[in-house]
Amino acid sequence: MDISVVVPLYNEVESLPELNAWIDRVMKAGHFSYEILFIDDGSNDGSWKWIEDQSTISPAVKGVHFRRNYGKSAALYTGFIEARGDVVVTMDADLQDSPEEIPELYRMIKEEGYDLVSGWKKKRYDPLSKRLPSKLYNATVSKVSGIKLHDFNCGLKAYRNEVVKSIEVYGEMHRYIPYIAKQAGFTNIGELVVRHQARKYGVTKFGLSRLITGYLDLMSISFISRFGKRPMHLFGTLGSLMFLFGFMAVAWLGGYKIYEQLNGNLLERVTQSPYFYIALTSMILGTQLFLAGFLGELISRSSTERNHYLIDRRTGE
Prior knowledge:
Layout: E1 3-9, H1 16-29, E2 34-40, H2 47-57, E3 61-65, H3 72-82, E4 87-90, H4 102-110, E5 116-120, H5 128-145, E6 157-160, H6 161-166, H7 177-183, E7 189-193, H8 209-227, H9 231-262, H10 274-302
Parallel strand pairs: 1-2, 1-4, 2-3, 5-7
Antiparallel strand pairs: 4-6, 5-6
């Protein structure tokens, strides 16, 4: 099969018939073998009923329905598991992504050898209050990840099948799939300028709160990718430095008092100095950080994923 189109959705019954017909028209015009996977994230507006009915009419249409709303990451992860096409294309169900971009995305994967191609909505029909934070967010993610993309959160993306089978998306990590793919060893990541269309039905499912959660998720994935299997490298180093700083400060205070007393100068007790408590706190925090790293290391070594590595090729078979 050439293409699997994965469409996560939540209460989008108005746009589904038009979107399905549009994808079907583009696929047939390009003579692709394809499937459309509608992943219903707990809709309660009749979306699943439409998917069930359409799947009996068209063998290309398949659906998965969640009992409740789990979020876009869960929907994408399920779609990735179900996808059988050589190229997997994801797109939103609100008609703001154009299926007309799919043939070019497919070509870039198959002919130019990209592992992942992300859409870039260069001209957007969103309000300024949404565009400005998005620019700041994308610039930050690009800097942290080292991936030169303009629109990390664009729903329109294409992947080699091997990529989606090798990554795990959870929580709200769908915003960082290019970063996750890069950490898994798929570094050939491209970008395609795509058309962005004004929303035709319904309302957006995302609010301003995603700006806060987005940065928290970025910190989380950055930490996991660097120290997930070696937490002692971070916590042990910080803990050791803080303990050493505190110990040296206490030693200096004690040594200074002894020196002054030997020279006949009476000083207040060491415990009366605020620097003593700063040093003591530093030693306590350093010990706690070191123990946190040690416990993290024990947990990491007990994980079933501790020796999970992606093997790309073999010889001698």
